[in-house]
Structures are given as C-alpha cells and as structure tokens.
Amino acid sequence: MTHPYHPQHPLIFSVQDRQTGIIHDSDIHSYDVSSIIPEDSSILGNCNWCGNDLRSFDFFYRCSICNFSLDSSCSQSFPLPTISNPKSHHHSLIFLPRPLLFPCDACGLVEQWRPSYACFQCNYVVHKDCIDLPRVIKITRHPHRLFYTPFLSPSTSSLCRLCYETVDINYGQYTCNHDDCSFVVHSKCATHKNVWDGRELEWEPEEFDETEDVAPFKKVGDDLIKYFCHDHHLKLEKYDRVRDMDKQCQACVLHVDSRHFYNCFQCDYVLHEVCANLPRKLDHGLHNHPLFLDPVPLNAWDSSNCSVCERVTVGFVYKCSKKRCTRIYQQKRFQVDVRCILVPDCFTHKSHEHPLFLPIHNYDTRLCNGCNHTGSTSSYYLQCTLCKVFLCYECATIPDKLHNKYDAVPFSLCYGEVSDQTYWCEVCEGILDPREWFYTCSKPYITIHRSCVFGWSAYMMPGYTLLFGNLSIKVICNSSNTRLMCHNCDNRCSSTVYLKLSNGIAICSYQCLRDFNSKLDRSPRARYNVELVNWYLAALAD
Fold this sequence. Notes:
Keywords: Repeat. Residues 41-74, 87-131, 141-190, 228-276, 410-453 form the DC1 domain. Residues 473-513 form the DC1-like C-terminal domain. Among the domains are: 12-76, no CATH class; 133-205, no CATH class; 221-276, no CATH class; 401-456; 462-541, no CATH class. It is globular. It is mainly β. It is 8% helix and 27% strand. A hairpin with a 2-residue loop joins strand 14 and strand 15 (224-227).
C-alpha cells in the first residue's frame, strides 16, 4: 500500500513467524508470498515512526527498498495531506511525512509518534491532536475559566499548577485572565481526561449561579443554625477541654474530640463545625465534574465505598452530578467521603518533608509510602514531584492523634522507625513491625497497630442498618463485658462495633462480612432468593 508516512515507496504487508524468525512478505491483492530469513534477529528493528519494537507484532508493513517499517498501529493512521482553515492557525497546514523530533508549538512536547503539520510561511509546527485545542475551558481545579495562550511573557509564573513542573513560555499553555491570578497549566495537563470534562466554552456565557441555594445551613440565631438535611435546629458548642467520645459526627463519622461542633438537643445529631460548613456543591480536583453533597439518611444505607480511598462509610459523601459519567468506579457512581474531600490538591503531610500533590494521572502500580500496598482498585494517590514518593488517600486521611475517653494522653501516629526491639500490639497482642505506621502513647508507653485502633470500625456508627447484597445487617456498639465470637473467623469481635445479621449472627469486621457473603453466594440459589438466604441463616444459627 501507499502510506502518507512513506509516500516515496509502496509498503508490503509482512508477517513474522515467532518460532523461526522468518519474515513473510506478501502482496495481498496477488497473494504472492516471499520469505526472508534474517541473519540477525535485530534486522526487524523498530517502527520508523513511533519507535516500537517490531518483534512484538505479528504483522507490520515494510518497504523492501529502503527498509522502512511501520507497525500495525501506525499503519492504520492516514492523516490528511492538507488542513484548510485550521482552528489554531490563520494559514493552511501541510502534513509532515516525518516524525516531529522537536517541540510542538501548541503543547511544547516532543512526541514523534504523533502525526504533525506545519506552516512553512510562519515556521509553525503542531501535532495533529493539538490543532483543535479548545480556546476556553473550565476545570475543577480552578474557580475561573482558562484561556489558551500561544506563549507567555517572561514575567509570568512558569510553574504548571497541575503537574508542578516548569512551563516553557515559548509554547502554548492555558492561563487565567483574572486580575491578580497567575494560574498557568500545560495544554496537555489542562485537557487531560481526568481534569477537563470535554466542554469548550468559547461561545458560552459565564455561569453565575447566584440564585442557586447551595448554602449548607441558615443562621436562625446566635450560634444557632438550621442545617439543610435535619429537622431540628443545631447549636454551636465550643470545645472546653471536655471530650464526649460517645458522640460521632454525622458527616465524617469521627468522634467529637477537640473541635467545635454543632449539637441537636432534641436528638443525637452532631456535626463538626468544619463538616457543617462544607458546601452542598463544589468542584474538586479528584473529579472532572461538579460534586454534590449527599447526606446519607439513617437506616437507609446501601453498602458502598469511597471511590478514592475505598473505605466503607456511613457518613456523608459527595457524588458526581452527571448521571452518565464516564469515570465509573467499580460500575458505580463516583463518590467521595468527607475525609478525602477535605484533602487539598497541594497537601502537607507530617510523614514527608515536601508538599504532596494530586497528579493528573491515576496510578495502579505505585507503592504507597504509608501502608506499602500497591495495585488498589481506586488508584488515587498524592505524589511528591521531588522524591517520587506516593501516599494513598487512606493513609493521607488517618488522624495523627487519637483521643481515648479513658486516657488523658492521646495516641500519636508514628510514621515508622528503625529498631532492633520487638514491638507488640496492645490490642491484638500480635507482633508489630516498627517500620510500618503505628500508634503509640507515652504514658503509659504502648504501641498499637493502626488497623486495631483506627480500622474499618472508625467509619461505622451504631444504629445503622446496612444492606449488603441480600443481607440486612445492623451496626451494634460493642460495649458489653463479653465479646461475641465472629461467625466467620471464630475470633472475638474486638472493634468498637460489630455487625449483627437478622438471625443474631455476629460478624467482627467488614472483611469477614465479605467472606461470609461469598459463602452464601456459593450456596444453591441463595444468591438470588432472599427467602432462601434467611432460611440458610436460620439453619446456621441452629
């Protein structure tokens, strides 16, 4: 075939035998086949356009005259020879039949595998993908609209606010036109699918939702508010060094310890002051669409995970406003719990000396510096651009201090240490690895696994009824002198709460609940029939 990447000679369809290394050149139209036995396996080389190793492809196209080759992916690209009236330039653009080995004027990147066009009159070269870059966009990581700019003045800030790397002012980027705002981002960063929602706003008016009621509460008196999802008035209680560890915030589910909070005197509804001021609608860097606050009602919760940290919570969550959002987490709607939503794009954590940033790419093979886990299903991390250190959101949102109603001295989070001594967990009495994060208390000196003191139960609240598949589970406060035995693992329920099934069976943790539910799924027809599930549970209880 004749290809625009190599117009001077025809390209022949070639197939490589993986076992013998023989290359079979064939004319598809005449079905003539010729074979080449390469003396050296490196005769295949790489694709002359993108640089990929041809040995990883079963077939490719090659020129027998000048040994020019294209892999199967590049051979399917047929760019137009000329683009008239391009969006990004005032002259027609001509296709370059050679890989572009110097920066694109629109994005500043050297990506030779991308087809490129040029205007020789203006000495302007641009990737095909960059020709139609939008002129005006809005991203969730900045409150103002961004405008495409072909270059910047030398006095302008040249640090990209998304990847935090230098922006070359000689090439295209997006900037904010508001006074006293120096927000600048790379064009590729601004239009990344995780950052931009794909809407171009060049001819659309600015949206001012002044009439939209998104305030979380209304003031009805001195330190008295009417919260949008609660029937009673809430009063602000100032922290007076007296902690009520039996109260939990309805939004973040954490205990009321050393912060001001709003309290309802007619019921046990409590909100931290910070949580009560969370807006009902916001833009956040974790998602490319606006998010709306969803206060999960009591006794009407379906088991769900935060899309960012994967924790199960009964607190408030922010959900994507788009019903058909393309960024789906485990086939469910994108949602973020309150703890993760409070983490800013630029974050300072005590475990690391440099600021951590929210990258625009999702990583699924990065090792978290806190838990040493990798390959999570959420793939959301905070990153240090200097050290390439990664921190998952579950570790980033763990409190550095935990208060206990029986001890005056709080537990402090230790970020690992080097020691030859043997550490023991005060709760589970198991060995504790000092190189991992753990909680410690100086008076008396004790060490505790972080999962034992701040595990799955930290985001559970007694009184909730959970719907997990066909199972109806109640969250019960584990305050009795006798700890029940878990029906799944045969260990005692040691957390502050445990899960109780409709027939009285006790489950110690959410992980055991999953294991127990998987056993039900393997039983005949119980997966689809609620009556059979109840019968099966009754049989287990007997």
